[in-house]
UniProtKB/TrEMBL annotation:
Segments crossing the lipid bilayer: none
GO molecular function: RNA-directed DNA polymerase activity
Protein name: Group II intron reverse transcriptase/maturase
InterPro entries assigned: DNA/RNA_pol_sf, GrpII_Intron_Splice-Mob/Def
Organism superkingdom: Bacteria
Length: 106
């Protein structure tokens, strides 16, 4: 399964998805605009670390978002690289689990 997650085609599709969704930078400060360059530079190292089982997840950036009632809620923002990897996993496992879900769940 890991081999499919880190397959170059799957990672490219995940990268395109994250870029299209835009979003904020995480704790590393890498914006979606910079992601293509940064991810391309470290892709081989990431793949190898994941395959060897020693990949270290980056911390999540906490941002307080104001709510309508005057309170705030904490939003966790992963790094853009983490979002690519999360998307790659989702793309790999979704076809296996999708048939199990109800037609009415989204």
């Amino acid at each position: 399964m890991i081999t499919r997650v880190v397959h170059p085609f799957n990672l490219q599709k995940a990268l395109e998805h994250v870029i299209a969704n835009k979003g904020s930078a995480g704790v590393d400060g890498v914006s979606v605009r910079e992601l293509l360059k940064v991810f391309s530079e470290k892709k081989l190292q990431l793949i190898e670390a994941i395959k060897q089982g020693n990949y270290q997840v980056q911390p999540i950036l906490g941002i307080e978002i104001p709510k309508g009632n005057g309170k705030t809620r904490l939003l966790g923002v992963p790094t853009t690289t983490e979002r690519v990897l999360q998307q790659a996993v989702a793309q790999t496992i979704a076809p296996h689990f999708e048939p199990e879900f109800s037609n009415y769940s989204y």
